[in-house]
Specification:
Length: about 425
């Protein structure tokens, strides 16, 4: 599952370092590029999530994941054949549809494979894939940028001329097919603790009874996501334009930061939540989530203001660790109060809402503030800081407001 999640984020995030050549060749604005990174992916990721999760609660989760990986790999490769904004937008939509199959089924598989007191670490290891994939996407992108400086376009029969950035999509899509082959040899764990046949009635009953818990976790995490994805999408451009880094240097350094600090943060977040739970702190996952967001605030509002390469690198490493701490905790908390019969569907509802808000709105909100508010692309770093300064404290407050309801839900389940 970790390898599959890593692959999904490579395919999802590879565009963030290719912003320069893509904008130059397709002649699109920063706001249009943000739509490719955000809305094109998140809209159909969201629309497909719940139906695919419903199937995951009723049928083989591994088979559904295999179909999803095959779909997003094909659509990633098709991104490389796009010669204008429209076809690239459509291909990104296809990537979103394929990736919607992964998270609900994967989290359900993990919950059935580990007891509650070990689930946080398991979720943390799986969630590391987001940052491993994001980091590798930047490292790969950095290598591609180095190649672009010297590579000549290639011409294929029936296809035409392809630039180096276009062939990148073809190469990053290929590993998905190997993952599909590997999953053919995996056994699916038995579903644990099922008392009712999976149905929409179980989902609706949960949403009625646990609405306060679901919405506080979903809204709080989505606002955090606006801040975190804002950095993930736009920090490469900030390093290139504000600090004068080359695109290849940006890819290697920022990608390495994500690989080292964000992945270790993701594991540590789940580990801390498990320790608190084992010590009898029933809302350990939620407490860790709130604390991690608060810890990130000083780094989030100061990183783009650093005046040296060393300063921005150190601050970005600290911020990436804090953001990594958060990664696995919302789903860990949600699964603690969710019946197995609808875990995939609840996870999908959470990701649907989060994708629309975080990935659909976040990058475009920052781009619009830069282009139409500050009217200066060199103010991109300031726009990221403003959004983070608003979203992170608000996210922590909303999550804190749902803590009592979360504890009541845990007590009801245990009694």
């Amino acid at each position: 599952m970790l390898v599959a999640y890593t692959s999904s984020f490579i395919d999802r995030q590879i565009m963030t370092l290719l912003v320069g050549p893509i904008r130059a060749d397709l002649k699109i604005s920063v706001t249009e590029f943000s739509l490719l990174v955000g809305l094109a992916f998140s809209l159909f990721y969201s629309m497909s999530g719940v139906p695919l999760a419903y199937l995951s609660d009723r049928y083989s989760r591994i088979r559904i994941i295999m179909i999803g990986i095959f779909t997003w790999s094909i659509m990633t490769m098709l991104c490389g054949f796009a010669g204008s904004f429209g076809p690239l937008f459509l291909a990104r939509m296809g990537v979103g549809i394929g990736e919607a199959a992964l998270a609900p089924a994967a989290y359900s598989l993990i919950s059935d494979s580990f007891p509650p007191e070990r689930r946080g670490r398991a979720m943390g290891v799986y969630s590391m894939g987001a940052y491993v994939g994001g980091g590798l996407a930047l490292v790969i992108g950095g290598a591609v940028i180095s190649m672009i400086e010297h590579a000549k376009p290639i011409t294929l029969p029936l296809v035409g001329t392809l630039q180096a950035w276009q062939t990148t999509f073809f190469y990053v899509g290929l590993p998905g097919f190997l993952i599909v082959l590997a999953l053919m040899f995996c056994r699916e764990p038995a579903r644990q603790g099922i008392t009712n046949k999976p149905s929409l009635s179980v989902l609706f009953a949960f949403m009625r009874q646990q609405s306060a818990v679901f919405w506080t976790i979903s809204i709080g995490s989505s606002l955090f996501g606006i801040a975190a994805i804002g950095y993930l999408v736009w920090m490469p451009s900030i390093l290139i334009h504000q600090y004068g880094w080359s695109a290849s240097k940006t890819g290697y350094i920022y990608g390495s930061i994500l690989l080292i600090f964000s992945t270790s943060g993701s594991f540590c977040g789940g580990w801390i939540a498990d320790i608190l739970t084992q010590r009898g702190i029933k809302d350990g996952a939620l407490r860790t989530l709130i604390g991690a967001i608060l810890l990130a605030i000083p780094f989030a509002v100061s990183t783009p203001f650093m005046t040296s390469d060393i300063g921005v690198t150190v601050m970005l490493a600290a911020l990436s660790f804090c953001f990594g701490l958060v990664q696995a905790l919302p789903t860990t908390a949600l699964h603690a109060v969710t019946p197995n019969e609808c875990r995939s569907q609840i996870t999908a509802c959470y990701f649907v809402f989060g994708s629309i808000i975080s990935q659909g709105i976040g990058p475009t909100l920052i781009a619009s503030l830069t282009q139409y508010g500050f009217k200066d692309e060199m103010k991109l770093g300031l726009a990221v800081v403003v959004i983070n300064a608003i979203m992170l404290p608000l996210a922590a407050l909303i999550l804190l407001s749902g803590r009592k309801a979360f504890c009541r839900s845990l007590d009801a389940i245990r009694h």
